[in-house]
Amino acid sequence: MSGFVFTEKPITIQSGDGPYLYGADGTEYLDFGASYACTPLGHAHPAVTEAIQEQAAALTYVQGSYPVDVRTEIYGKLAAVAPGGLDNVWLCNSGTEANEAAMKFARAATGDSKVVATKRAFHGRTMGALALTWKQQYRAPFEPLPGGVEFVDYGDGEALAGAVDEDTAAVFLEPIQGEGGIHPASAEYLRTAREVTDEAGAALVFDEIQTGLGRTGTLWACEGAGVTPDVLTTAKGVASGLPMGATVVADWVAQDSGDHGSTFSGGPVVCAAANATLETIVDENLAGHAADVGAYLRDSLSTVADDQDLPVREVRGEGLLVGVEVKRGANRVLKNLALEHSVLALPAGRTVVRLLPPLTVEKHHADAVVDAFAEVVG
Ligand SMILES: *Cc1c(COP(=O)(O)O)cnc(C)c1O
Question: How far is ligand 1, taken at its centre, from the CA of residue 57, in Å?
Answer without folding.
Answer: 30
